Amino acid sequence: MRQIDLRSDTVTRPTAAMRQAMAEAPVGDDVYGEDPTVNRLEELAARMIGTEAALFASSGTQANLLALLTHCQRGDEYIVGQVAHTYKYEGGGAAVLGSIQPQPLDFAPDGTLDLERVAATVKPDDFHFAKTRLLCLENTQNGLALPLGYVEQARECVDRFGLKLHLDGARIFNAAVKCGVDVQQLCRPFDTVSVCLSKGLGAPVGSVLCGRRVDIDQARRWRKMLGGGMRQAGILAAAGIHALQHHRERLAEDHERARMLADGLQAVARCSVEYETMQTNMVFLTVPPEMVVPLRAFMAEHQVLISGGPRIRLVTHLDIDAAAVERVVTLFQQFFAG
Ligand SMILES: *Cc1c(COP(=O)(O)O)cnc(C)c1O
């Protein structure tokens, strides 16, 4: 029986067509700027996101760190969500490697940061305080596409204080597909945007950081310093090109399967399902706490992997088809009936 892995959309394996594109990619030394496939990926990403330039990074964590290092100096501060990836899930990199102080705020339930609170949190120009320099947003946030119109308001807010605006757009294409708008509309207000190629888009490795040429040139310097100057990286960039060209529109299927999964689990007694209207490819599930461990064990016995915790996150992706969703719902019914 084929394994069904719902822990994350990072678990996808390259398709046969993607592997072929990787095998056939022309390569060169990217540190000399001579890898034609990396150059093609960077041009393609910049064109799609609507920026002057883009930079291939080893991961989303690296792309976000490059943006923070580019916008902030030692002793500066960025405002960020309390559970944002750029604050909570990147090992404190901005503080450790950039001497940049985070100022976290709670996200609203819709994944936004309240802009009045952001404005009230910007520190006055006074030597007691770090200099507030940057606001970081995330789209999607916990699978939720941000409400349309919010990012323009965020731009107006940061402009009042002369701050920069960075988007952790790890899953920005999920948001664009969900909202039925061009991704450029969602990215336009930002100075920089990071995009993961290795989540729902299905590439094995890599992210891109998109922005103005002057910022991307600076980010390229930081990338070298961080050990991210990769040589014949075209092998990996080819997977990213394939992902951007062939796996964007199909994200709608992941959203449809997440909805099917939510509907199916809603009907299972003792499962409390969260699935909001702006949800993309994630379903959050709460079960009685004493059942979490046995549930995971039962699923694993049946070749289904789910994450732990009191609030279980189930993620759909390229390797989860409708039959897999049906099998998972049936297993939940069996477990809770038993
Ligand atoms: C996955 C993710 C990243 C980057 O993660 P990497 O594993 O470093 O590629 C950044 N932001 C969000 C919101 C993510 O989900």
Automatic annotation (TrEMBL):
<dbReference type="InterPro" id="IPR015422">
    <property type="entry name" value="PyrdxlP-dep_Trfase_small"/>
</dbReference>
<comment type="similarity">
    <text>Belongs to the threonine aldolase family.</text>
</comment>
<dbReference type="InterPro" id="IPR015424">
    <property type="entry name" value="PyrdxlP-dep_Trfase"/>
</dbReference>
<protein>
    <submittedName>
        <fullName>Threonine aldolase</fullName>
    </submittedName>
</protein>
<dbReference type="InterPro" id="IPR001597">
    <property type="entry name" value="ArAA_b-elim_lyase/Thr_aldolase"/>
</dbReference>
<keyword id="KW-0663">Pyridoxal phosphate</keyword>
<feature type="domain" description="Aromatic amino acid beta-eliminating lyase/threonine aldolase">
    <location>
        <begin position="5"/>
        <end position="286"/>
    </location>
</feature>
<dbReference type="Pfam" id="PF01212">
    <property type="entry name" value="Beta_elim_lyase"/>
</dbReference>
<dbReference type="InterPro" id="IPR023603">
    <property type="entry name" value="Low_specificity_L-TA-like"/>
</dbReference>
<dbReference type="InterPro" id="IPR015421">
    <property type="entry name" value="PyrdxlP-dep_Trfase_major"/>
</dbReference>
